Amino acid sequence: MTTPLPFPLAPEPDAAAREAGRLLFAQGAEFLKGVVAMDGLPPDDRPEVCFAGRSNVGKSTLINALTGRKALARASNTPGRTQEINYFTLTDSHYLVDLPGYGYAEAPITVVKQWQALLRAYLAGRATLRRAFVLIDARHGAKAVDEDIMGLLDKAAVPFQVVLTKADKVKPKDRDAALARTRAALAKHPAAYPELILTSSEDGLGIETLRAAIAAIA
To answer: Where is the EngB-type G domain (predicted)?
Structure first.
């Protein structure tokens, strides 16, 4: 008998879940505001999900793929371009939140420290945050800086789910090695959701699965 892998890849959503995800995102998403301090956060009047990840892991590109809007979230090849907490409304039912990239960034050290502090304060203190999606490059797997954020989410009791990005850019052998590293890292984190989502913003892999997961979060 085969022993199931820890943290398996999430299965394809069933027809009902897929349709719920499609309908949620088909109603439209809009940029609301960029936040540079905790007192600038919008009212906590609806559930929200956030996207966290190392600089240039593809957070903005993934949000664009989810919403079907090529330029909704500003994507850049320059690490550290997102220096605010960017809020998007998903109809009147959810907030989508694009967080500043953590780790390496092409910016002055004082600026980096400022927005990293904001990111940490947000993760630890937002009552309506229902799930954090921690984005990890499928070519590399989890790194020490990713585990730092996972540890913060553990302490804040914020459930998080790993989303592997750029799956189209990795060979199966290398992808399996990255998955193994990620699973080993997740085993140490009690707030980790038990399934991984493998995505590609280029070819649409995993987009329906992620939409369905967000639609199921009340």
So the answer is: 45-218
Per-residue pLDDT tens over the stretch 37-83: 899 999 999 999 999 998 889 998 999 999 998 878 775 544 445 57
Distance CA 102, CA 120 (A): 10
What is the pTM for the complete model shown? 0.91
58 conformational bin, left if phi > 0, alpha if psi -120 to 50, beta if neither: left
Burial of 17 (0-12, 13-18, 19+ CB in 10 A): middle
CA gap 124, 23 in Å, rounded: 31
Closest by CA to 52, choosing from 129, 113, 128, 140, is 129
Residue 14: count of CB within 10 angstroms of its CB: 10
What does DSSP assign to residue 77?
Answer: S
Say if CB 51 and CB 97 are below 8 A apart. yes
Q: Which domains does the chain have, with CATH numbers?
A: 15-215 (3.40.50.300)
Q: How far apart are CA 111 and CA 83, in angstroms?
A: 8
Cα–Cα dist 151/134, whole Å: 12
- Amino acid identity of residue 176, one-letter, is D
- Residue 66, number of CB atoms within 10 A of its CB: 25
Task: Please tell me the distance from the alpha carbon of residue 82 to that of residue 55, in angstroms, as a whole number.
Answer: 8
Q: Which residues of 20-57 are buried (b: 16+ CB within 10 A; e: fewer)?
A: bbeebbeeebebeeebeeeeebeeeeebbbbbbbbbbb
